[in-house]
Amino acid sequence: MFFRILMAYLLIMTAAAFCMCGIDKMKAVRHQWRISEKALLITAALGGSVGLLAGMYIFRHKTLHKKFTIGVPAIILGQIVLAAVCMILF
Fold first, then answer.
1. What pTM does this model have?
2. What CA dihedral angle connects 24, 41, 11 and 54, to 10 degrees?
3. Residue 59 in contact with residue 27, Cβ under 8 Å?
């Protein structure tokens, strides 16, 4: 049961981060109010990192910012390490 809840949570966070990236790109093109970089990175850290990375390259958004091109893969790597440690301990 825990595994299903975790997978649902990660799917929701991934979709949210992907959509946030697309919305922010659309707003950037239209010179409208933007989603903060902090909000995007927090969403990635809370489980949406794969969605944000996919959104970055699909929407060609934030791909020139080192904070994102290095930070998001670093978050993914950290999440993989955390998952591996949790699998070993539990």
1. 0.92
2. 60
3. no
